[in-house]
Amino acid sequence: MKEYLVKETVGSPVIIWGMYPHSGNEKENLITRLEELYITNCTIIALEVEDWNAEFSPWKTECEGGDFAGNGIHTINYIRDYMIKKIKQKYGNEVKIYFMGYSLAGLFAIWSLFLIDELDGAASCSGSVWFPDFLNYVTENIDKIHSKKIYLSLGGKENNTENKLLSTVLDNTRKLKTYLEERNNVFFEINRGGHFADSGKRLAKAIRWIV
Q1: Antiparallel, parallel or unpaired: β 66-68 and 61-63
Q2: Does the predicted TM-score (pTM) go above 0.90?
């Protein structure tokens, strides 16, 4: 795993951004989008993994959405036992820390709240909430998280697919919101377009709401 300091504002909330390898100009694009929305009060640390389907999947599964090794717990341990400790040493024990991700990393963002107490919330943009058994996991463990700030978003066309599993993403995200909002501050936004439409702007909007 690699870390990149994308943006730093002393005294602001820290957002850990789960990224995939070979991300091109994603980091620069996010900075541009933040500037367009006049967002300055945040520190962003990108966490880049080597194997997207392995290191952001909560458990092993083979399905219509792909093959997933389920090594996400190693990423959880890295964030909890290394990154968060380093963040608190640098920015103070009282700093607010969030995890943000897109697609499978968006699913991971929600899952991380159940396993990392130090997180104050999460942002899941176009999260893969179709992932097999994820909603069952949420309902069985829902009492573990409370008083978190949680942002959910989805593209309005994402459920328009012949893939039966992926087509459940809208209904599942709405259910997820219902489960989470009983004890947490949750906001759900539907954006125009499909899964990959203007991901930088969607992430910037998530940050705007979080901070």
Answers
A1: antiparallel
A2: yes
